[in-house]
Amino acid sequence: xxxxxxxxxxxxxxxxxxxxxxxxxxxxxxxxxxxxxxxxxxxxxxxxxxxxxxxxxxxxxxxxxxxxxxxxxxxxxxxxxxxxxxxxxxxxxxxxxxxxxxxxxxxxxxxxxxxxxxxxxxxxxxxxxxxxxxxxxxxxxxxxxxxxxxxxxxxxxxxxxxxxxxxxxxxxxxxxxxxxxxxxxxxxxxxxxxxxxxxxxxxxxxxxxxxxxxxxxxxxxxxxxxxxxxxxxxxxxxxxxxxxxxxxxxxxxxxx
Length: 256
Description:
By secondary structure, the chain is mainly α. It has one domain (2-249). The chain is built from 8 helices and no strands.
C-alpha cells in the first residue's frame, strides 16, 4: 500500500516544481512498473476483502500502470494461464521465430499487445451480452482511466501552458505507463522464451532469490517452481537436464 501512496506524490511533484520532472521521471517509471506488478498480484489475490475497495484500488493502479486492470482477466487468467506459451496463447514467444535476440525481445511486447486485443474484445463482448454488471464495471474502468488522464493533462496545461504541461504529463505519467506495460510483457518473454510449452516441468523459467520475491511475492504457481527444491535437493548432478527437450525439438514458429 505504501507504493500506491508514493506513486501520486512523485508523479505530481513536478506539477508544483516543474524543474524536477527530468530528475523524477525515472522514479516514476519504476513506480509505474511497480503498479503493474501490484496489479498482477491484485488480480490473482485481491488486496482487500471488500469487493468495492478492490475495484477502487484496481482503478487507482490503472492511472500509473497505463491500462484498466480488468484486462488482466481475459489476457492473463483466461488466456495465458490456459495455454502457457502453446498455440492459442496471445503472448506466445515463438509466433514468428524461435530465435532469441534483442530485436525479438524488444518487439515482443508490442506484437503481443496486438494479439491480446482479440481475447480482450471477446471478453467485453461476452460481458455485454451475458453479464451486465461486469460490463458496467469494465465501462466504469475505461471512463475513470480516460477521465483521470484528461484531468491530469488539463491541470498540467493550466499550470504550465501547453508545452510545459504536456512535457510534465508525458514524463510523469505517459512514458512511465509505456515503460510499465512494455516491461511487464518483457518479463513474460524472458520467463517463457526457449522453454518447452508441452513440458510439465519446463514450460516456464523460474526466478528465485530476492529479485523474484520482490517482483512476484506469492507462492510458487507453476510445476517448475513447485518442483525446483526437489530437483535441486534430490536429483543427482546433471540429471535435471533429462527434463529438458533438445532445441531441435522446440516448436516451429506459427508464421514466417
